[in-house]
Structures are given as C-alpha cells and as structure tokens.
Design brief:
transmembrane helix; alpha+beta; 611 residues; two-stranded antiparallel ribbon
C-alpha cells in the first residue's frame, strides 16, 4: 500500500494531491458533525425511556413486600424465608396487608374496594394477584437400595420432563388441578432451575378476608407438598401520577435439598408511551432516528459495493455494521412492544376480576431498554474513529493498536493461570463458601480478589491448609506478576509511540490543522488577528533571546548549534512530514531514538544540509 501510494503521489501534481486531501478532510468533518447530531438525538431517546421515578417506585414496593416483617417475629420477612411455615406466615401477614389497603390512616374509607385496591393510596392494583405452583412427580430419582427401607419416595429436581401434570389434594378447585399455559410470558430462570408456564393456579379475591380464608384453607389441606419446586406470586400496579406500570413477581423455590430460596423481580416500565407533550417530542426524535438509520445504511451499502472485501478489513467498519444491527434490533423491539400494548392493554383491563398478565409486556420492554443501552454504548465508542485530529488521542489509539499482539499473547497466558485457580477454588471451597459455589462464581470471586474485595476468613475456614496457599499464590502470580506485566506492555509501547512522535514519525494531523486554519481565516475576516507589527515584535523578541543566551555564558558554537537544530526541524517538517514520512511510517524503538542512528532520517538530514 505504501509503494502504491508513492507511485500515486509521484504521478499526481502536488496541488491536486493537496486538493484531494482537503476534500477528504472536509468530508470527514461533515461526517463528524452529522454523527454528533445523530448521537445527541439518540441520547435524548435513551434518557426519555428511563426516569428517576422508576427507581423510587421499585424501591417503595420492594420495601413493602420484601422488608416488612411477619407479625410477632421481626426477623422473618420474605428475604429470610427458610421453611414452609415461614412462607405461610408471609402469605397471611405482610403479603395480605400489602395488597389490600382498605382505608385511610384515620380509618376513613376513600373509595370502593370492589373496584380495586390502591397500594400506598396511589398505586392501583390491576386485576387480582395470582399464585402459581409447579411440582415434580414421585420416583423422578432413585433411592439407593440400602436406604429404600427408610425412604420409599424420591422427588428430583425440576425439569420439564419431571413436571407433575396430575391432579392432587381435594381435586375440586383449580388450585388442585393442573392448568396449561395460555400466556405469552417467557420461562423463568431461577436459582436452581428454569421454570415453564402453567401449573396449579389460583387467583386471589377482591376481598381481603376471603383471601385470608383461602390461604388458611390451602395451608390446612397441605397445598404445598414435598413435590413442590417453585411458587410464583404475580401482580401488577399502575401509578397515574407518574404514568408508570410496576410489574411484581415474588418467587419461592423449593430445591430438592430442602429449604426455600427466595428471589424477586420489580419492573417499572412506561407502557403508555405518548401522553404528554414531551412524549410527542420523543416521538419526533424516534422518527429522526429512523431517518438517520436509513441514511447510514445507504452509505454503508455504497461503501461495501465500492471497496468489496477490503471494506471488512477495518475494525471501524465492523463497529459501524454492529451499530446498524443494534439500531434495527431496537426499532424491532420498540415496534413489537407498541403493537402488543395496543392489542393487549384493553383486554387486560377489561375484566378486573381476573389476573392481568402484564409480565410479558414488561419482559419485552426491558429487553428493548437493554438493546438501546448497548446501542448508545457503541455509538459513543464510534467517536474514537474521528479523534485522529487530536495528538493525545492519536497517541493512545496508536499505543493500543501497536501492542494488541502482545496483549493477546499475554491474555492467553493470563487466562490459563486464572482458570486453573478458578477450578481449584471451586473444587476445594465450592461446598462451603458461597463465592465459590459454582465455577462461574469462582471466576467472579477471583476478579473481586484482584480488586481487593475478598473473604479470606471464609476461605481459611473451609480449608486451613489449601485456603491460605491458594490465596497467597493467587495474589503473588496474578496480582504482583501478571498484572504488572500487563502494565509494562502498555507502558513500553506508549514510550515507543511518544518517541516516534517526538522525532516526526507521526500521522499528519491535517484535520486539526484545517480547523486551526479556518479559525485563523475567521479572525482575519473579523480583523482580530495580529498585524505584521506584532509579528515583527515576536521576531525581535527571538533575537533578544539570543542576546540573553550570550549574557548568560553560552558560547557562539552552542548558540549556532541550537539555531541549526531549530532550522533543521522546521525544514524536515515542511519538506518530508506530509508526504514521504506519512507513507514510510515505521515504528522506532527507544534505543534508536536515544542513539539517533535512524538511517532514513540521517539521509534526509544530509539532503537538507546539501540543499
């Protein structure tokens, strides 16, 4: 490519080459300005999706249903449930009191309870809550023959193949009969399994006392059995003051080991998108976003047709394609969410006596937020494509591009040692320390150790011999050796890049020069630039510096060598910097820079002297 560039420059007049570069720089600057407009528009869209009210609504609801203690036992709440007895206490206590707000603080009734409950007097309960249970069949695992006399039943972990579909218990109501799923909700990913839809379902009543009697009846007739593997509590709220829906799911998993593992999901989403004037402004930004997307897509298609396979050799082109794919995904998710809300919202609100399944709407809306968040991330990363006009930023990008091979080789060595320690920690401490309970947790725990967050007491208690040995050797090899090697690679490469830039081996910052020249031209037109008299004063000031150097004791040879060095540097930059050095750009080592033995620059220096 360098030879082809030289031949092109030899056969092209200098004024034409300069004109082409100016056109290219002007085009790049125009692309930068257009892209900044696109980025500002995208930022407005992303900030319009999320607002602080979402956090406060989630916080107040989680405090109500997760932190409220069981009456008579302040240490028991939903987070601390560990037994079936604690679960029923929560259902008949904090859950019941949290769902049914039947009066004001002075016992004054403010609204018709048959319509809907209003949690914290501001959040309308949509429909009625639903409780759903999934079970497994008996004999889904095998009991060792020696223990069959002690235990004849065996209930394995939950899988779709082990799920129990038969009726049980009283068999006369829906909560005792298996119901197939007619919902679009996705499967739930829990701590110990992935759970499907359907199950043994019952919905709560509008009346608080009827619901309490229902809970007592289910508890007395053992609705929860040894075969139970998970129970979901789902309900949805709407706050008209901030136009937000809050979809809540409380999950209690019953693993095959016994006990209960609790988890929860609080999704505050804005399903009614276009209500206020600001919402309509966001709608106009969405239309602008689509126009930008069409323009950018057309440009990339033209580039692919023009450059063909060479187009895919640039990392920035791959980032451009990834950004376009993410933008199309965001538009698809947004369109799907709006269509589903338009088709389903009226049906969900039509019957207040049934459970309103807003979970799948919130699920897709959260995925849309995730896609748009990743999109804005890569949109900001793309700005690095346009920062070559800045010397400091160009040094950083040159450092990363030059040391990428060394970093890849270092990463292979690093992760070999890192995964070896992760497997060691998982096998030795996995059964006793939560941070090492799974192989994935072991990997994350080791990253936390590198950052200084670790539980040495737990490791030592799990194994008094291997625990300290594991910890000390991991800190020594990974923290003191490998991480310092990584920093040394970056530091050494950065020093080489700075050395290259200091002697003129650097990219031509012509975009920066163009901006500077445009600024000077504007000053000239506005008559704000220094006149010739000021420039003469500066020349006179440089002569005064020579006289000052003589008075301070410098001899004439030293002053002449300094002047020659300054002239040589200026002539080198004027004659060779923008044409030949740019094409013959090669890295120079620190030793070559110190010794000053670079052959090419010696030749150019001799040419300057002869001329």
């Amino acid at each position: 490519m360098a030879e082809a560039s030289r031949r092109h420059q030899v056969g092209t007049p200098k004024h034409k080459l300069k004109y082409r570069k100016e056109v290219e720089i002007r085009t790049t600057l125009q692309e930068l300005l257009v892209y900044f407009i696109f980025l500002i528009n995208l930022c407005i869209l992303t900030f319009g999706i999320v607002n602080p009210h979402m956090y406060y609504l989630n916080k107040v609801m989680s405090s109500l249903f997760l932190d409220t203690s069981v009456p008579g036992d302040e240490r028991t709440n939903f987070k601390s449930i560990r037994s079936i007895t604690d679960f029923w206490k929560f259902m008949e206590g904090p859950l019941l009191e949290g769902l049914y707000w039947d009066s004001w603080y002075n016992n004054q009734q403010l609204y018709n309870l048959k319509n809907s409950s209003r949690i914290y007097y501001e959040n309308i309960l949509l429909g009625v809550p639903r409780v759903r249970q999934l079970k497994v069949r008996n004999n889904t695992c095998k009991v060792y023959p020696s223990f069959q006399s002690l235990m004849s039943e065996c209930y394995g972990k939950y899988t779709s193949g082990n799920e129990d579909l038969s009726d049980f218990g009283l068999r006369h109501n829906t909560e005792w009969k298996y119901s197939t799923s007619n919902s679009n909700s996705p499967w739930h990913w829990g701590f110990v399994g992935v759970y499907g839809n359907g199950g043994y379902i019952f919905t709560l009543s509008k009346s608080k006392y009827e619901t309490k009697d229902k809970f007592i009846d289910l508890r007395l007739h053992s609705w929860i059995t040894r075969a139970t593997r998970v129970i979901f509590i789902d309900f949805s709220l709407y706050n008209a003051n901030v136009n937000l829906f809050c979809i809540i799911r409380l999950v209690a998993e019953f693993p095959a080991t016994g006990g209960i593992l609790t988890s929860w999901q609080f999704y505050s989403v804005k399903l009614l998108r276009y209500v206020s004037y600001y919402d309509y402004f966001l709608a106009s930004c969405e239309i602008t976003f689509c126009i930008f997307l069409v323009v950018f897509t057309t440009q990339e298609v033209k580039k692919i047709k023009e450059f063909k396979s060479a187009y895919f050799k640039s990392i920035w082109n791959w980032i451009e394609l990834l950004l376009l794919v993410l933008c199309f995904m965001a538009i698809s998710f947004n369109a799907y969410c709006n269509i589903q809300i338009f088709l389903s919202l009226g049906q969900l609100l039509e019957n207040t006596e049934k459970y309103s399944d807003f979970y799948y709407l919130a699920y897709w809306h959260i995925h849309y937020n995730n896609v748009i968040a990743i999109t804005i991330f890569f949109a900001w990363i793309k700005i690095f494509k346009f920062i070559s006009f800045n010397k400091t930023m160009s040094q950083l990008s040159s450092t990363l591009s030059r040391c990428i091979k060394d970093i890849v080789g270092f990463a292979i060595m690093f992760f070999i040692i890192f995964f070896a320690y992760a497997q060691l920690g998982f096998l030795v401490f996995g059964s006793q320390v939560d941070d090492f309970s799974t192989f994935q947790n072991s990997i994350f725990a080791q990253f936390r150790i590198v950052l200084g967050d670790f539980n040495f007491a737990g490791i030592q208690q799990a194994n008094r011999i291997l625990g300290p040995i594991y910890f000390i050797t991991f800190i020594f090899f990974v923290f003191f050796v490998l991480l310092n090697m990584f920093l040394a690679i970056i530091n050494d490469t950065y020093s080489e890049v700075k050395a290259d830039y200091s002697i003129g081996r650097r990219p031509d910052f012509e975009l920066g020069k163009m901006i500077k020249n445009s600024y000077k031209n504007a000053l000239d037109k506005l008559k704000l630039k220094k006149d010739q008299k000021d420039e003469d004063k500066e020349m006179k000031r440089s002569g005064d510096l020579v006289e000052q150097a003589r008075r301070e004791g410098f001899d004439e040879n030293e002053i002449q060598r300094a002047a020659q060095m300054k002239k040589w540097k200026e002539r080198l930059e004027q004659k060779y910097y923008s044409t030949e050095i740019e094409d013959d750009y090669q890295p120079v080592t620190q030793q070559e820079f110190r010794d000053g033995t670079t052959t090419k620059y010696k030749m150019k220096f001799s040419e300057c002297l002869t001329k």
